[in-house]
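In this supplementary section we document a worked example of the pipeline. Step one takes a protein sequence of length 236 as its only input; no multiple sequence alignment statistics are reported here. Step two produces a three-dimensional model, which step three serialises into structure tokens for compact storage. The input and output of this example are shown verbatim.
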Amino acid sequence: MRGWLMFTVMIGVLLGFWIYKGFYTQVTAGSVEKKVLNLKQVVCTRSVASKVGTTEQSKKMNVAFVIAPKNFRDEEFYIPFKYFKEHGWCCNVFSISRECRGMLGLLVKGVLPLETLKERIDEFDLVYFAGGSGILKIYNDKAYVNIAKLAYQKGKNIAAICLAPMILAEAGVIVGKKATVFACKDSLSLLEDKQVEYVGEKIVFFTTQKGAKVFTAPGPKYAKEFAQFILRELQR
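The serialised model returned by step three reads:
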């Protein structure tokens, strides 16, 4: 009897795991279809970059995605990346590693060295920092902080989601401003230390003195809405 009970419990546990795994796979697959993304990096010419004007062509943007080498959040990178490309925006991806692994297993290959973004910053209209737990390892890394500083100084639009606003706080980009972030002890403490006003909203943005926009969002469930909002605002 005892053996039969143990067998029944084990079957129940295995069945529960199978159901959970199926649900988990379905949810993540719906957000990030690929497990390996082999990038084909392109030169973003100014012919498709934003310029003053009203034509649709003039509103195409060049985007530099910046991700952590490990544990970036898959959806926060891939959903906006795919969405912008579908709308004709030119996208390149930068990090301190040529291969980067997401929290949910997405492997991104062919990533460009982050240091080269400093030389190419003028090519881009938007610098987008994806989030994820990996940000906790690199938010104060000079390689990332200096890119945020440079983008701000050059009057580039900047976006950061999840924990990535911590990079902007370190860089001084959002000091004295309202911003949102994935709320945890580390992120909230940093924003307070850097005199950033935390706002618990799904999207927060402001316009810089140079006319650029700085966008922040708190997490992966807003990735698609964040991308849509950014595109809409920058095409005004």
